[in-house]
């Protein structure tokens, strides 16, 4: 009698696990705003998504492999049992293992194999848990069959699924935590690099991005970026230093002939032409001195000689000499550590700028460590408010005058030496308009 232990098993069906996914037409809801938009959370989200996909794929593979293995093992056991039941039946005539003869519920697939004289097994998974059948033809032409439920091993599979779910959640949470740590470290390094780069942009030549992020300890793309930024900062510093030296050398070389021109102009006979020559020569001398001062301030070698100064009283005395027509208001007196000579230079340049380029009354206000100089003219040009004062640029035509654009540049440089902050803005039109320069001194 032919015996096909496991023929092609045409009706064997092993259902696959179905993950819990949103139905078509629905979308998973996520918060409209993440707690913090940044590289850390993007990396964490990416790692979490990848971890979830990997865990889901592995869980499906393990679930299906375990299910197939368990069913195959059960089919092997059922096949051995049906052979044992056949031997006992043919020997003693008794049915064991709950075997049945010509079971009317025998699946038609097994009936077809029995008609061919073949032994076969079959798995029926149309219900909740699979049922494993086995049949074998008997010597008397009848068919002996066994039926066993998969309940016990199915419960093991359920436990396995629960363990896979717990493991997947642990993998996702662990991956997210690692992503937060890695992303946080990278985000902190990039944040330090940004802070250091801003300091370099503000003129701090001693700051290096690679040192700020600890690049000597960690070698990665961030370190390469820091190297590139530092190299660019070094190149810019060398170029600016070369330009400063050229400017200082030119101004220094002009100083001697200009001094000779001043002396010669003083020897000219009285008259209108002589006054014009002396006026232009003095203007040229002032320009050369201003250029030299700008070059010194750009060199970052200037040091302030700090003294305790009563700001309100100091401003009253200096304004009385520098701009007698300006009004002084002391809202709050303050004693600040500053360099009187440099502070007077800043105040004089702000007053001169207001008188030359502004219009109307000039107001000086002292409010604690704040010193404000305001005119009632057309206000500062937009490019000055956007980029700050630039040398040899006097502003718009409405604020043009006889200057060379160095007054506010020198004032800004002197404020930097004092550790103060000089800002520029325009007063609103409903408040009378005009340009407002504000100096904040350290206390």
From TrEMBL:
Xref: Pfam families: HAMP (PF00672), HATPase_c (PF02518), HisKA (PF00512)
Gene Ontology CC: plasma membrane
Residue intervals of the Histidine kinase domain: 249-443
InterPro entries: HAMP_dom, HATPase_C_sf, HATPase_dom, His_kinase_dom, HisK_dim/P_dom, HisK_dim/P_sf, Sig_transdc_His_kin-like_C, TCS_sensor_his_kinase
Keywords: Kinase, Membrane, Phosphoprotein, Transferase, Transmembrane, Transmembrane helix, Two-component regulatory system
Start and end residues of each HAMP domain: 184-241
Protein name, as recorded: histidine kinase
One term of GO molecular function: phosphorelay sensor kinase activity
Localization per record: Cell membrane
Organism whose genome encodes this protein: Actinacidiphila alni
Primary location class: membrane
UniProt cross-references to PROSITE patterns, sorted A to Z: HAMP, HIS_KIN
Lyase recorded as keyword: no
């Amino acid at each position: 009698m032919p015996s096909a232990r496991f023929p092609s098993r045409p009706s064997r069906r092993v259902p696959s696990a179905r993950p819990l996914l949103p139905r078509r037409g629905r979308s998973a809801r996520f918060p409209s705003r993440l707690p913090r938009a940044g590289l850390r959370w993007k990396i964490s989200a990416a790692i979490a998504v990848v971890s979830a996909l990997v865990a889901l794929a592995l869980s499906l593979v393990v679930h299906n492999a375990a299910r197939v293995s368990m069913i195959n093992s059960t089919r092997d056991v059922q096949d051995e049992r049906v052979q044992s039941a056949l031997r006992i039946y043919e020997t003693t005539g008794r049915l064991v293992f709950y075997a049945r003869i010509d079971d009317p519920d025998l699946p038609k697939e097994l009936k077809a194999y029995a008609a061919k004289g073949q032994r076969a097994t079959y798995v029926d998974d149309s219900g909740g848990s699979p049922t494993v059948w086995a049949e074998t033809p008997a010597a008397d032409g009848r068919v002996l069959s066994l039926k066993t439920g998969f309940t016990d091993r199915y419960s093991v599979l359920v436990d396995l699924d629960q363990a896979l779910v717990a493991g997947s959640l642990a993998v996702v949470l662990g991956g997210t935590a690692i992503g937060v740590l890695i992303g946080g470290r990278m985000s902190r390094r990039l944040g330090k690099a940004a802070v250091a780069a801003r300091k370099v942009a503000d003129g701090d030549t001693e700051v290096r991005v690679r040192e700020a992020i600890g690049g000597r300890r960690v070698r990665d793309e961030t370190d390469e970026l820091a190297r590139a930024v530092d190299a660019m900062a070094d190149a810019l510093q060398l170029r600016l230093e070369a330009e400063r030296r050229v400017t200082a050398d030119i101004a220094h070389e002009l100083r001697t002939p200009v001094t000779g021109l001043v002396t010669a102009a003083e020897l000219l006979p009285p008259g209108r032409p002589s006054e014009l020559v002396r006026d232009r020569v003095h203007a040229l001398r002032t320009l050369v001195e201003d250029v030299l001062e700008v070059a010194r301030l750009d060199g970052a070698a200037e040091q302030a000689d700090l003294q305790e100064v009563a700001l309100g009283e100091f401003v009253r005395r200096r304004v009385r000499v520098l701009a007698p027509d300006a009004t002084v208001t002391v809202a709050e007196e303050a004693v600040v550590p500053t360099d009187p000579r440099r502070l007077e230079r800043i105040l004089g340049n702000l007053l001169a700028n207001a008188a030359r380029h502004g219009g109307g009354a000039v107001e000086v206000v002292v409010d604690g460590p704040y010193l404000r100089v305001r005119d009632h003219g057309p206000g500062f040009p937009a490019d000055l408010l956007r980029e700050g004062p630039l040398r040899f640029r006097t502003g718009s035509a409405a604020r043009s005058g006889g200057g060379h654009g160095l007054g506010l540049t020198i004032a800004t440089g002197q404020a930097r030496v004092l550790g103060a902050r000089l800002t520029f803005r325009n007063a609103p039109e409903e408040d009378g308009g005009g340009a407002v320069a504000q100096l904040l001194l350290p206390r």
